Amino acid sequence: MMRNPVFDVMKGIGIILMLVGHIPPSYPVYHFIYSFHMPLFFVLAGVFAKDYQGGERNEYVNLLKKDAKRLVLPVVVTQVLLILLSPLHYAEDKNFHFVFNQFLSLLWNGDAIDTKWGTVSCQMWFLLALFWTRTIFRGLEYACLKKSKWHDEAIVVICALLSVSAVVLHVKFSVKLPWEILRGTTAVVFYAIGWYLNRHKQPLWFYWLTVAVWLAALKFGGIDMYPYYYECYPIDVIGSVGAIWLVYQLSKGLCKLAPKSSKLLQWFGVNSLLIFCIHCLDRSSWLVKSIRFVLGIHVTGLYSVAIHYGITILIVIIMLNIPYMKQLYGAKKLREL
After folding, report:
1. Full residue range of the structural domain in which residue 189 is found
2. Alpha-carbon gap, residue 177 to 128, rounded angstroms
3. Is residue 153 part of a domain?
4. Interatomic CA distance for residues 100 and 306, integer angstroms
5. 132, 128, 14, 134: which is closest to 79 by C-alpha?
6. Helices (H) and strands (E) in the chain — how many of each?
């Protein structure tokens, strides 16, 4: 089956917004980006979810292994690289606690917990969360094999209830779980929405209604999936669908009217997994900061941001020329698109 470049462009826009969102911006920009940019990846994953037939248990196990190879293994490899690069942080602050902290993070990789060695958390939360989102959703499909008139709608409702329950457990009862199990449960509603919309065509007015809800969410809501923050859960979730639909329309227009620009965005989308992992590696190890120090690059402001992300993309390009890394992260060179 041929890849649809529109969806790769959407992921490209999403990963660029992630990079922008990690720059300390003014609050309105942050608020705008976070209203949909991470839900976008979960919704797209749901759109491409294959129907689980559930005829044999082996099918569930095989899909679980495939997801572990695609989503969990890159986290482990990147985390090992982070441990190897952690002395860069030690050279800066002369504190060995950070180095040991990375070993703990590899074992925990979940909701942030405080230890005497520092806060143990996971920068690459999205990949592990997506792994659990897919696992939970398929388990739900397996449990609901008996078809009924409202089968698909029931699954979406159950996913929404699971999502809300996970948010309440963390926010109200301070429940913390390893390996992003809880955060993956909160995201299952977005995955289910993508799955449902791919199976059931909706009228145009439905999407414009979700856009209207998104505009309301920008005013009265607010979402940040990492800290389980939902200012007004219903409009935040429904509104993100409207924003994602607008990104879809924008991506279609770019593919049709600006093929060269869309090709570059497509490259970002196809390599979003690699870009995400290198960015997380940099944020935790000060990799790019150390490279800039060695090269004697001392600038501030927007020049600093441009150079920093320029070096990040250069590292990505270098990784694309390492066969194992290219295969591990499912990456492609521009000429291969």
Report:
1. 5-258
2. 12
3. yes
4. 31
5. 128
6. 18, 4
3-state SS, residue 332:
coil
251 part of a folded domain:
yes
pLDDT at 52: 60
Residue 81 token pair: 């690289």
Judge residue 22's burial from the number of C-beta atoms within 10 Å of its C-beta, 0-12 exposed, 13-18 middle, 19 or more buried: middle
**Which H or E run includes 155?**
helix 151-173
DSSP state of 51: P
Residue indicated by tokens 């897919």:
134
pLDDT at 177: 94
CA distance linking residue 198 with residue 185, whole number of Å: 21
Give the pLDDT score at 95: 63
* Structural domains of the chain, count: 1
User: Hey, is 68 helix, strand or coil?
Assistant: helix
Considering only CA atoms, which of 245, 242, 134, 238 is closest in space to residue 187?
134
Angstrom distance (rounded) from CA 271 to CA 4 = 15
Q: Kindly state whether residue 231 falls inside one of the protein's structural domains.
A: yes
**Which pairs count as long-range contacts for 133-136, CB under 8 Å and 24+ apart, including other chains?**
133/42, 133/45, 133/184, 133/185, 133/187, 133/188, 133/191, 134/45, 134/49, 134/63, 134/67, 134/71, 134/191, 135/64, 135/67, 135/184, 136/162, 136/184, 136/185, 136/188
46 falls within a domain = yes
Q: Give the 3-state secondary structure of residue 120.
A: strand
Task: Return the number of other C-beta atoms located less than 10 Å from residue 228's C-beta.
Answer: 17
- For strand 118-120 and strand 113-115, is the pairing parallel, antiparallel, or unpaired? antiparallel
Instruction: Give the C-alpha separation, 308 to 290, whole Å.
Output: 11
Mean pLDDT, consecutive 10-residue stretches, the chain (337 aa), reads: 86 95 77 95 93 65 90 93 76 66 84 82 91 93 74 93 97 95 97 96 97 97 95 97 98 94 95 95 83 84 90 95 94 91
